[in-house]
Amino acid sequence: MVRTEKSDSGNKLIFINLIVTVVLCACVGVTVFCLDLKRKEECSNLRSRVVAFEKEVLFLRTQLELQEVVLNQTVASLHNELSKTPKKSGTTAAPPEEAEEYEYDPAYDYEDEEEDEDDDTDDTTASVPAIAERLSFVQELFNDSVSVRPKRYVSIEDDTNILASLHKSTTEDSLSMNPPIHESRNEPVKLVVDLPNFQIPKSVHLRHSKSRNKEKRESIVEARDENIGIIASHYGGDAKKYRYGQHKHYKGNDVMYHPSGQFKDWAAASWVENLKMNTFFRLNDGIVTVQKSGLYLIYAQILYAEVKDFSGFQLYHNESLVAQCMITAPSFNGTLKRNTCFTSILLPLQPFDTLMLKEIEGTRYTIFHPTKSFFGLVKLTNLRNEMLDQ
User: How do strand 250-252 and strand 255-256 relate by DSSP bridges?
Assistant: First the structure.
């Protein structure tokens, strides 16, 4: 009996040890599995960061090359101008006229200005010191652009060697500098650049006369607006959301009055959205907001169904009364009368101006159907800057 009890206790210990071993192995396996999943997730994040880094480096490299080409072309034009300028000892040329710089506009005609500049060069020529100063400025700008290091935009560490090799390859492939020889000691050192077959637009430095160019650019802006076509919007009465018996101001068959005295239940015509006219106008709670300036024709009509002697509405521009319409129709024995009230007006509008319609007095019953009560506006022409400044 004693041996049997000892053997049973030994078997129990072995069984317990086996269970503990199995549990420990399971814990180790789960831990290894979790660590492997975490490792794969981190590797995936690193790969995505590396791909983003490569794309950003490629973008920065392309941007740097384009900037270098533009600056090289500018330097070459300055060299040509400097080489064609006659040297005059003991004389100092007048400083060049101030020139305004604009972005290149493909719709702008620069031929007239080039002819005027050719006429101006016959009278006065740019001085050598002035051109040398411009050349020095471009050279400094060029050196600053070449030495740009885009590391501050990269979130991955240890990228110094990659950016250094990128910078070295970019500068070696695109530039070759040769110091020239000058007879005069005061002339700056020229920067000779080997350029590829690349035509830079005329917009690097454009000269414009302030008065004439202002008028031309205004005409270009007006021409662009005219290319958009007619800008218009139309809104009709919309009483579809109301139900007789549920809304006390609605009497059925589109007959309703407006509790606040303001006409709010408008809906844009279907062609407004189809023609993308809703990008030029915004309708919110019965108020129309204009997005483009211009001279507009504004019209409105309300069909009244009332027993009272007079009815009418008012048109407000930025909460200021600009037009109104009133009808007077005497009633006999309280008979119901249906009369339309129409008005229109020309108004110069600017961006973010608002328009809305209100009752003149009290609340009147109207037939708020899109074919009977409506209002809208049409842009007729652009506004001159003189009108906008007033």
Answer: antiparallel
Q: Using CA atoms, how far apart are residues 374 and 81, in angstroms rounded to an integer?
A: 66
Q: Which of 80-94, 158-172, 346-360 has the lowest mean pLDDT?
A: 158-172
Q: Please name the residue ranges forming H helices in the chain.
A: 2-84, 111-123, 128-146, 160-174, 210-228, 270-274, 385-389
Distance CA(250)–CA(367), nearest Å, equals: 10
pTM higher than 0.70: no
For residue 364, give every residue at least 6 positions away whose Cβ sits within 8 Å of its Cβ, in sequence order, or none: 257, 304, 306, 308, 311
Long-range contacts of 148-153 (CB under 8 A, 24+ apart): 148/64, 150/56, 150/57, 150/60, 153/56, 153/60
Helices (H), 258-310: 270-274
Q: Which residues contact 128 (CB under 8 A, 6 or more apart)?
A: 82, 85, 87, 93, 187
Three-state secondary-structure class, residue 244: strand
Dihedral angle over CA of 11, 17, 18, 23, nearest 10 = 150
Rounded Cα gap, residues 25 and 14, in angstroms: 16
Do the strands 281-284 and 266-268 form a parallel or antiparallel pair, or are they unpaired? unpaired
**Partners of 260 in the β-ladder:** none
Q: Which two tokens stand for residue 92?
A: 């100092």
What backbone phi and psi angles, to 5 degrees, belong to 55? -65, -40
Q: Which fold has domain 231-383?
A: Jelly Rolls (2.60.120)
- Domain-by-domain residue ranges, the chain? 28-71, 231-383
Tokens 């119901």, residue located? 336
For residue 377, what pLDDT is reported? 96
Q: Which residue has the higher pLDDT, 384 or 70?
A: 70
| pLDDT tens column, 328-387 | 887 777 677 888 999 999 999 999 999 999 998 878 889 899 999 999 999 999 987 545
271: left (phi over 0), alpha (psi -120 to 50) or beta: alpha
Cα distance between residue 155 and residue 171, in whole Å: 24
Q: How many helices (H) and strands (E) does the chain have?
A: 7, 13
